[in-house]
Amino acid sequence: MSTIDRYFSNGSLEDVCLATYGGVIPEAEARFEEILEMHRQIFNTEDVEFYSSPGRIEIVGNHTDHNGGKVLCAAINCDTLAAVSDRLDGMIEVKSKGYPMLRVDSADPAFSVNEIGSSAALIKGVTDYFIRSGKKVGGFSATMTSSVPNGSGVSSSSSFELAIAEILNVKYNGGKLDAIFKAKAAQYAENTFFGKPCGLMDQSAIALGGVNLIDFKDFENPVAERANWRFDDLDIFVVATGGDHSNLTDDYAAIPQEMKEVAACFGAKLLCQIPPEKWERDKANIVGKVSERAYLRAEHFFEENRRVEAAVEAIDAVDEEAFLDIVNKSGLSSRYKLQNTYSPAGQNRNLENALDRVVRIEGVLASRVHGGGFAGTILVFAKKETGVDNALRLMFGDFNVFKLGIRQSGAVRL
């Protein structure tokens, strides 16, 4: 029996690793032991609970959520891992491996301009949302380590936010708060305290766990439909292609704005308010009233919503060929209709070039832009044991290739 087993509420280390990471990985016990020892040294106690909050991928549904569309997303088997102990003074102290100690008074999570962009802002924001929503908060001590790679487009910040939300949920609210509430708390923290405008997709995927279709037609109450993922013969990779996002704000902002320009031609604020049959019947009438790019981006929106629905049907039917075809078509639509594989204002075509290169690798079955686009990452599905992992690492470098698996649990106490 592992010395770590006694800390889990739902089984042994082997059970936890199977459920959380997809297998008993050799590094798992050492990782738990390391964070427990860190906690013992910093907080002088080993009376802890372990929490885990995953990263996420977007499978289909590129740039649809901000116009009330549908997204197919999934939690993945890299995580923010936390050892957490009680405290009675109301202070939240978080020490992440390699970073300074963070301290927040749970009774007074006041916004500070000086903390914009910081992890302290995320802790404060989540706590403030709980208070504003009439939920209970309090102090705790946490030691954290993360296997969610920064800059890889799998939402390391959202993983951290949901870890904080789940700790507050379990310790002070009986573990009764639903996934979407926790996702909203995390989004609020990022929007209001951290200073980053974002939708609810990343946080929802992490809070829910598994593979989910999320319909954002009602932003306040998104509807999630779980898909039964059984494609165990597929490997999933996210590949970082390089490029700088700092000068791409205008490119990102133009996508929802142009979609809204099209919606306005139909007397609506968002594309989701236009019935698909009305779009098909009347879309020719707006030609010349908006730019060609805006028109194509709207067309992508409606087609992508249908692809999300079809992808769930293919997953539930265990129709792998149909699913992979949908992913590839989503990628082509992002490239040629949404047009977010490179920035018109810049010279960087790393992402587009990467998409052209990966399709030549034997064993690669589907690929597409991952997330916001213009620079950043691509998503690759490949047949297991075909050498794709090595080929990708030779092509892009070890530090740019992340092999992932689907995780069924969201942010959770282990």
Number of helices: 12
Contiguous runs where pLDDT drops below 50 for at least 5 residues: none
Quaternary structure type: single chain
Q: How many β-strand runs?
A: 12
Radius of gyration, CA atoms, in whole angstroms: 22 Å
What would the average pLDDT be, to the nearest integer?
93
Structural class by secondary-structure content: alpha+beta
CATH topology of the largest domain: Ribosomal Protein S5, domain 2
In whole angstroms, the N-to-C terminal distance is 17 Å
CATH architecture of the largest domain: 2-Layer Sandwich
Overall spatial form: globular
Order of helices and strands: HHEEEEHEHHHEEEHHHHHEEHEE
CATH C-level class of the largest domain: Alpha Beta
Helix content: 40-55%
Query: What percent strand?
Result: 15-25%
Give the total of domains: 2
Query: Main beta sheet, described?
Result: 8 strands, mixed
